[in-house]
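hey so i finally got around to running both of the ones u sent me last week. sorry it took forever, my laptop kept dying halfway thru and i had to restart like 3 times lol. anyway pasting them below in the order u listed, first the sequence line then the structure token line for each. didnt double check formatting much so if smth looks off just lmk and ill redo it

first one:
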Amino acid sequence: MGRAEDDKAENDEAETGGHALSAASGMSDVSEPEREIVEAHSRPNAALIHEIIRAEGESELSRAIPALLLSGLAAGLAMGLSLMAEGLLRAHLPEAPWRDLVSKLGYAVGFLVVVLGRQQLFTENTLTPILPLLYNRDMRTFGRVARLWALVLAANIAGTWAISAVLAGTDLFPPEVRAAFSAISQHAIEASFGSTVLKGILAGWLIALLVWLMPGSGEARSVVIVLLTWLVSVAGFAHIVAGSVDASFLFLTGQASAADYLWRFFTPTLLGNIVGGVTLVAALNYGQVASEVQA
């Protein structure tokens, strides 16, 4: 496209109020007040969602190391609430075919705290900072993403081990609840390496998708978080942070070895979560709006 055509497109856009981020950009036959009413009642389009998340990603990439570490540690600790809530529900519900469907609602508790509290969770970062990387495509942004991933993952895992140590080494909960913790946690190390990778891909996809849905969810945000994380739990998918609470609890109570933690849980789950979040959500959703948001 030549310069003259570019100028014409910009002039046309100015005359009609059109913009890639505007849901009413193509409505040249309405007045400005009417267009504002349409915008107020429209869902965010894909380009606008992309730019909201990209702006959040740029902000996260600029945060200081202490802030990232403390936020990541808080998220790792908070994910222990998922095991606590699910274990308490499981221990107090009667034996019935529907018990797991109900008790696994407890899995959402940790995610509600982390997502609504804007704490740093590694699987969210398979989307949020990746959009600036796909947009900028330079080594500086790549280095910033690698720094963010390393800091957040380390802090998340440290937090999960800390909360697991409390659950495993104290009498905070009665024996029947601790038994429920053990039963719930077995899923983290029971599958083969390949199966866990696949489960990790699906979990990474769903959690990154959750982040993509947040800007357009409005007052239904909590419902979206509960539904998607409940699905992760019911399906037995593998999440690197929530699963680390489970796997470290098994290790600290002598029910799993270090090799179980590293090779049956951590490595395949991490690989799967990265692939699921980066390729199935970040790359695909960037691809659908690339022509609209690239300068």
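and the second one:
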Amino acid sequence: MEERIVEETTAQAKRHGMTRAEFLRTAAGTLTALWVLNEVSGLPQSGEAAPLPIRRVQCEDEDAAREVLDRRMFIVDVQLHHADTTMFPGTGFCFLRFLDTQGCQQNPEILGQLNFVEETFVDSETTIGVISGLPNGVPLGPEVMAQTRDLVNQLAASERCLSQVIIDPKAPSGSPTAIDSMEHQVKDLGGRALKCYTYSGNWFLDDEQVSYPMLEEAQRLGLRLINVHKGLPALFAPGSEQSVRTIDFPKVVADWPRLRFCAYHSGYFQSGDHPEGLDGITELLQVIESMPRHHRRRVYAEIGSSFALTLLQGPDQAAHFIGQLLRALGPSNVLWGTDSIWWGSPQWLIDAFKMLEIPPAMQEQLGYSALTDSIKRRILGGNAARLYRISRGRKRCSLPADLLEQVQQEQGGVRADRSLRVYGARTRREFLSIFGRA
């Protein structure tokens, strides 16, 4: 795919009198890359059978490309991250080992606060972002999350950023993410929802001794949304294959009727990672099906990283992924998230989702609904706006541009100055080296 993208974009750049990097920053460059993704996946480029329909003219003509990609939508990304580079000065910071060949060892700031602001709020269409940290406060703790949120909102002179409350129920009292820190995180730091990670200490949401004291405190403090990392054990926490399963949802949802629960990453397991062979979101779908309908209404799925992974397997796999979630949960219970800055600028994911379709044949054979513009708008922003109590009047098309959007316009739009930086592993060997298995 990389070779074909180089070939196609080199030819197009020459036609337009641009460098290849300049062309790749355009809407036509993005659609050329997606065209190649269709090609190497063996999928049709257009017509009813195409899950990612692209016309050749849209790869060659910038106006035609902008017509389909530059449809502004209200976008709430509920899973954003960056790293606190002050924790790890110099090369010691890169324990994350995000593609050292891209300069992380020499320039750890690429995963830091200011680059996060640029990649997310200047070089993408993200309207509002929600920052998450990690359970032990490394590499981003609650205090820095709030500082970054405040910085974004100060720079924008508008509320463009929110932050989560990060809790590890097994952390000892007095720790930055212990249960007894929740009141501080809610009342002083302004966290809007709880985020927890069952892989940190290998526990379950329905554990009455470990989890329920945390949920009781969250409910007391007025939090109504409980977000939990589920799935992707090899990518984030090798050895956590059991605790990142969604089998704890039925009991905890039933026991806490005033709370809503969201499975981040949609409980997605890559091939071979699930302890019982239930790849993808098979287990999440089984769990949801086993629950009473009135309980399902309080279950949500967030698609960060999982959408990216399925898309790169082939746009038809991304269509199946979204189709399954819509069939199981309905269009009001799927949330947009990207897991950026780990993926770089989230704009490529926004662009791909705008173009994605669920072909009629899939709908008929598998009972999926069509992925209409109305449903896309719910997933991209409307559903999260409701959960996070964001006023829909915040839609930027009805308000004067805030200061960050002005910077965006002055540079020529979201695409004009994109870094095109790759943050993660590009080969299987690089991916396995993260875990010392290369």
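quick thing i noticed on the 2nd:
The first strand starts at residue 76 and ends at 80.
anyway thats it, ttyl
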